[in-house]
Amino acid sequence: MVASAFRTLIGFLVMATSILVAPAFAVAHHMVLPFNLEEMVVTADRVFVGRCVAVNPTADTIAQGVLPVTRYTFEVERVIKGDVPSTFTFTQLGHPARVLAKRPATTLVLHGMTEYVVGDRLILFLVPNYLGGAVTYPVGLDQGMFALGDGDGATGTRVRNGRGNAGLFRTRYTGDYGPGGMPSSRARVIHPERPDPLAGAALSPAAKALESAGDAMPLAALVELVGYIHAAHGGNAGGKGARP
To answer: What total of structural domains would you count in the chain?
Structure first.
């Protein structure tokens, strides 16, 4: 059974890397294409702020095989894009690395897959569910997972993703590399080739300053910019969640 599941998973990985760039995840960081923030917003179908309250490593029947998965439950504080309930559970392939020593016979860890622990407060940009609607993961893996930390009192909550916010405004659109992904012709807000990539955007001074904010962006400004990008592509504000 384990061998069959492993073969099914490897087959999925090979298939995934041959389809649309956004949901094609890889098992190592160096295999994941970089995304700028606008492409992340467009690619994700759910963007929300929430706190992890439960982690459940288990197995599920997916793509005609029993695969290791982890179900994560979040208390949702704010929905920026999509329709997300106030208590939201989603499923990712693989198990968190920390459970490997406890259950070596039934655990499969995917290197580079995002993991969360109870108490984590995050902004997540989740790709549309795939494999029959069974599983998801953040856009660009750790690129689409922003951890929320305390500010200094004057700046409020600060956020950074797994890449230290690198490239969010200067990374080229993946569609410019070749077939698939989002081309720069679809850009509405972020233009990496310009001296000021946010030039022309009707944003607050704090949101316009995000490009120079480095690896500690103010949460309120980032939420504003993400919502602005979503609206620029014809989207409405997210639904449900426990809005502050």
So the answer is: 1
Residue 51 falls within a domain, yes or no?
A: yes
Name the nearest CA neighbour of 68 among 98, 30, 96, 38.
Answer: 96
C-alpha to C-alpha distance for 20 and 149, rounded to whole angstroms: 33
Tally the residues of the chain: 244
Q: What is the CA radius of gyration of the chain?
A: 18
DSSP notation for 146-210: EEEE---SSS--EEEETTTTTTTTTSPPGGGTSSSS--GGG-SS--TTSSSTTTT----HHHHGG
Residue 91, domain member (yes or no) = yes
Q: pTM of the predicted model, to two decimals?
A: 0.84
Are 56 and 71 a contacting pair, CB within 8 Å?
A: yes
pLDDT in tens, 108-161: 778 789 999 999 999 999 999 999 999 999 999 999 999 999 765 555 799 999
Q: Which two tokens stand for residue 203?
A: 């944003």
Domain of residue 68, residue span = 2-232
239 falls within a domain: no
Whole-angstrom Cα distance, residue 129 to residue 62?
12
Q: How far is residue 22 CA from its own chain's centroid?
A: 10
